[in-house]
């Protein structure tokens, strides 16, 4: 049992929480549920933005490719607007972070740790702003990089500008890895002399775009709730409402990756300390990588 300095809570803070480990699980479950609910919204925002990428003048693009003018081609594809286009993802991430703060504070309240949401939200919102602006730049950059690669490869191979333009239309919105996967798929079909190649490639490209949207949404939703949990706990800690001895324990997801996450099983760190991932990276809170579903438990 610990006694904490009280700040805003009127009732005496008598905390007996040593055995409430199941509450941690409930918190993780509640946060992951909130993340899963937000997931389709984030996905939709990404898809809406990606759909707008196809809004360019095909003939102008072909003309630029004809001249071998890579920069002009990228300009016609509006790559300068890419990060701004994906900004629509940001409000969903902020809303989810705020929701996760509410869930975490409600959970803390069951432990008689009362933290005013007004103290936590500005930090969570600031995090979400910083985080999502980095994210949209990254999505924009990787999407642009894919186009640059497809165009450069096409020009270098001496492909017909119309062929390059067709390839671009099919992979726009993807990152380089996924765009290359689509191209490799086409190469395989062509080599095998398959019929109906255009339709098959289009279907494959559409699936890659769906998968990318899903990967982004899942990853960012879990990151948002994990960060919000950390911020809420850390604020309570800073306010002296959690014991100095409080610790955080890494709980790997059931399918945790063997290189990064699984080695962190049971790793316990202080509120202000980082976890050390299997690859040596310092990690403030889960997730550790794309599609990571690990969580942390608070150890009192
Ligand atoms: Zn993980």
Mind explaining what this structure looks like?
The structure is a single chain. Helix content is 60%, strand content 6%. The protein has 300 residues and is mainly alpha-helical. The strands form two sheets. It has a three-stranded antiparallel β-sheet. It has a two-stranded antiparallel ribbon with strand order 3-4. Bound molecules: zinc ion. Zinc ion binds next to loops.
Can you describe this structure in just a few lines?
The chain is mainly alpha-helical. It has nine helices and five strands, in the order H-H-H-H-H-H-H-H-H-E-E-E-E-E.
Write the layout of secondary structure elements.
Blueprint: H1 21-52, H2 58-66, H3 70-76, H4 82-85, H5 90-109, H6 117-156, H7 161-171, H8 176-191, H9 197-238, E1 247-251, E2 268-270, E3 275-276, E4 282-283, E5 295-299
Antiparallel strand pairs: 1-2, 1-5, 3-4
Helix pairs in contact: 1-5, 1-9, 2-3, 2-7, 5-6, 5-9, 6-7, 6-8, 6-9, 8-9
The chain binds zinc ion (ZN).
Number of domains: 2
Strand pairing plus helix content: what structural class?
mainly alpha
Q: SSE order in H/E notation?
A: HHHHHHHHHEEEEE
Profile the largest sheet. Answer: 3 strands, antiparallel
Low-confidence stretches: 1-22
Total count of strands: 5
Query: What is the overall pLDDT average?
Result: 90
Gyration radius over CA: 24 Å
The amount of helix comes to 55-70%
Q: Biggest sheet: strands side by side, in what order?
A: 2-1-5
Percent strand equals 5-15%
Silhouette = elongated
Which hetero compounds are present in the coordinates? zinc ion
Q: What is the helix tally?
A: 9
Distance between the termini: 10 Å
């Amino acid at each position: 049992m610990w006694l904490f300095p009280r700040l805003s809570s009127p009732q005496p803070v008598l905390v007996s929480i040593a055995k409430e480990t199941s509450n941690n699980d409930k918190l993780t479950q509640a946060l992951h549920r909130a993340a899963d609910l937000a997931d389709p919204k984030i996905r939709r925002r990404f898809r809406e933005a990606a759909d707008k990428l196809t809004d360019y003048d095909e003939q102008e693009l072909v003309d630029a490719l004809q001249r071998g003018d890579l920069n002009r081609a990228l300009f016609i594809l509006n790559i300068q607007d890419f990060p701004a286009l994906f900004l629509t993802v940001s409000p969903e991430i902020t809303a989810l972070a705020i929701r996760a703060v509410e869930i975490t504070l409600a959970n803390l309240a069951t432990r008689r740790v009362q933290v005013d949401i007004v103290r936590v939200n500005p930090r969570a919102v600031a995090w979400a702003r910083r985080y999502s602006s980095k994210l949209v730049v990254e999505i924009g950059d990787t999407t642009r990089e894919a186009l640059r690669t497809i165009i450069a490869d096409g020009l270098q191979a001496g492909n017909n500008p119309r062929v390059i333009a067709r390839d671009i239309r099919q992979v726009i919105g993807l990152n380089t890895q996924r765009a290359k996967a689509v191209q490799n798929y086409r190469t395989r079909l062509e080599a095998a002399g398959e019929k109906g190649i255009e339709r098959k490639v289009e279907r494959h490209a559409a699936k890659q775009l769906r998968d990318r949207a899903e990967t982004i949404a899942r990853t960012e939703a879990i990151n948002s709730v994990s960060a919000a949990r950390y911020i809420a706990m850390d604020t309570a800690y800073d306010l002296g409402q959690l014991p100095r001895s409080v610790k955080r324990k890494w709980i790997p997801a059931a399918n945790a990756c063997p290189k990064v996450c699984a080695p962190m099983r049971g790793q316990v760190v202080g509120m202000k300390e980082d976890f050390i991932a299997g690859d040596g990276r310092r990690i403030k809170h889960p997730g550790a990588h794309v599609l990571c579903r690990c969580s942390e438990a608070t150890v009192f």
